[in-house]
Design goal:
about 575 residues, Rossmann fold, four-stranded antiparallel β-sheet, ABC transporter transmembrane region fold, six-stranded mixed β-sheet, alpha/beta
Length: about 575
């Protein structure tokens, strides 16, 4: 029942996209119907020649008439080819537009999904849906549906002509319909089964490849190349086996079974005309026999096309299901509230939050005034990064509220909210472009002079001297960790945010480099509310407030001096770090 509902939703969605391109699709169908008419007329011309002009005492006038009819026959088939090509162009145009629309909608939809979806949805899986699946969906409209629809039109039209020209033969051929139905039903079941398996395996292998390439350093460092190769081989073997089974199904359904029925159909026609010729009980002509045999051959050729395309249709349908499953995921609600003239007052009021079942944050209460700097410290898993995620509204609290300038952020438009913020993460993410575009992020408000000034202000004079048009390799591998972080600082600084979030922004940098870029950190914090997730406690000695977290709860709060005087959890952490540093 669930699968039927799902299939109905996919079919409905496909119809919606097809409806947007109905002009091209209907044009293609109309052109194919004209081509079908040409295919029907051709054998009739040859049959007419056989019945009226092929004889022992062929005269010159007969020969001229045959030449004229053959010229007409040639024109008919040239027109048939022309209309066929024009129809394919129409279908091609519609298919590309549909694929373009689907790909655009899927990508746009993905960008609107809550961050929580990406926690459980592998990146390779998403990539596969946006690229591979949309290409297969394009094939559905480009060739598969075109071939299947036009072949069906051809089968029905030609069979109708057989009934008109030789009704008894048409009735005799109906004997084969139940057998064709059984073949189709069996083919559909097996194709759907192996297509679903294959699609899942392909998604798994894409996810595996994406994950392994992203973590190649770890894999090679721990000598796990053989392990990941065996894992890859296992999935690849499953893909090979399902593809092999699919090939066997297609071979049996699309070729052997239909070919055998084609021979049976031809035998039925020959027997009918043979009996008529021998008994003389009904009129038989060579021309009519040729027409019917040609029509029967065309019918089974088109049945073979439908059967062959049927497997590909199932694959495309499975791909469409994957795509539209993604589109059915609920996007984040568009919030209407706007942040105007932001001061930067932030308040957490009895906030509880859980990623799964167990709360990660439990009753978090704190307040920070405009221009103040607040730091969060604690052991791994204490909830520091989760607080940042809540401020950015990547997630919503299970209980409690978060306010900025007295406005609850659950009512504030996310774009409006994040325009007032800038984030510098522990791992600086750089795009594979130049330094300038990594800072501007395609925002044309910032000139080259703005970019250079931002870099200089945060301590990146060396990068300016090398040139802001310097190309950055994948993951910024041609830059030092400190240089990558300076670009992140400049990216935040140039936007002049009211709220600044530093998520362990210097924890991956050695102490000497940290001293160099400390100027950038200080410049960033000027005249704005700053949230710091601190790894090195020595870097937060001068902040206004420090929140100490443990297992999702605030256990201590104050500034550095008051917390040291408290002689509690914070002092123990600080003393331990100082001893290790020494």
């Amino acid at each position: 029942m669930k699968n039927n509902i799902r299939n109905e939703l996919v079919t409905k969605k496909l119809k919606q996209y097809a409806k947007n391109e109905k002009k091209s699709l209907l044009s293609g169908l109309l052109l194919f119907m004209v081509r079908t008419a040409m295919e029907i007329i051709g054998p009739v011309i040859i049959g007419f020649i056989l019945n009226n002009y092929i004889k022992l005492d062929l005269e010159r006038s007969d020969f001229i008439s045959i030449i004229k009819l053959l010229v007409i026959y040639l024109i008919v088939y040239l027109l048939s080819g022309l209309f066929s090509n024009l129809a394919l162009i129409s279908f091609e145009e519609a298919a590309n537009k549909i694929a373009f629309s689907v790909q655009k909608d899927v990508y746009e939809h993905v960008t609107k999904l809550p961050i929580s979806y990406f926690d459980n949805l592998p990146a390779g899986n998403i990539v596969s849906r946006i690229t591979n699946d949309t290409n297969k969906l394009k094939m559905m409209f480009q060739l598969i549906l075109a071939d299947m629809t036009t072949s069906t039109i051809m089968i029905v039209s030609i069979f109708g002509m057989i009934l008109i020209t030789n009704f008894p033969v048409g009735i005799l051929l109906l004997i084969l319909v139940p057998i064709i139905y059984i073949i189709f039903r069996d083919l559909r079941y097996k194709t759907a089964k192996y297509t679903t398996l294959n699609r899942n395996y392909v998604a798994d292998i894409n996810s595996s490849i994406n994950e392994n390439i992203q973590n190649m350093e770890i894999i090679q460092s721990f000598n796990k190349e053989r392990y990941i190769k065996d894992e890859f081989d296992n999935i690849n073997k499953n893909i090979f086996e399902t593809n092999l089974e699919m090939t066997k199904v297609r071979s049996y359904g699309g070729y052997r079974a239909i070919d055998a029925l084609s021979y049976v159909g031809t035998v039925i026609v020959l027997l009918y005309f043979g009996v008529g010729r021998i008994t003389g009980s009904y009129a038989v002509t060579v021309g009519s026999m040729y027409i019917v045999i040609d029509y029967v051959t065309k019918i089974f050729n088109n049945i073979s096309t439908v059967v062959t395309r049927f497997g590909e249709l199932e694959q495309s349908y499975a791909s469409a299901t994957h795509i539209f499953d993604l589109l059915t995921l609920e996007p984040m609600k568009e919030l209407q509230g706007e942040l105007m003239d932001v001061k930067g007052d932030v308040k957490f009021e009895d906030v509880y939050f859980a990623y799964d079942e167990d709360d990660v944050l439990k009753g978090i209460d704190f307040e920070v005034k405009s221009g103040e700097t607040i730091a969060f410290v604690g052991s791994t898993g204490s909830g520091k990064s989760t607080i940042v995620n809540l401020i950015l509204n990547f997630y919503s609290p299970r209980l409690g509220n978060i306010y900025i300038d007295g406005k609850n952020i659950k009512d504030i438009n996310r774009n409006s909210l994040r325009e007032q913020m800038a984030v510098v993460l522990q791992d600086a993410f750089l795009f594979e472009t130049d330094v300038k575009d990594n800072i501007r992020l395609d925002d044309n408000r910032y000139t080259d002079e703005d970019v250079e000034r931002a870099l200089i202000d945060v301590g990146g004079e060396a990068l300016v001297r090398r040139g802001i048009n310097q190309k950055i390799f994948e993951k910024g591998n041609n830059l030092s960790q400190g240089e990558k972080q300076l670009i992140s600082f400049a990216r935040a600084y140039i936007r002049n945010p009211k709220l600044l979030i530093l998520d362990e922004a210097t924890s991956n940098i050695d102490t000497e480099t940290e001293k160099v870029i400390q100027k950038g950190v200080q410049k960033l914090q000027e005249d704005r509310t700053t949230f710091i997730i601190a790894h090195r406690l020595s870097t937060i000695k001068d902040v206004d407030k420090i929140i100490v977290l443990h297992k999702g709860k605030i256990i201590e709060r104050g500034n550095h001096e008051s917390l040291m005087a408290l002689d509690g959890f914070y002092k123990n952490m600080y003393d331990e770090q100082m001893r290790n540093h020494v």
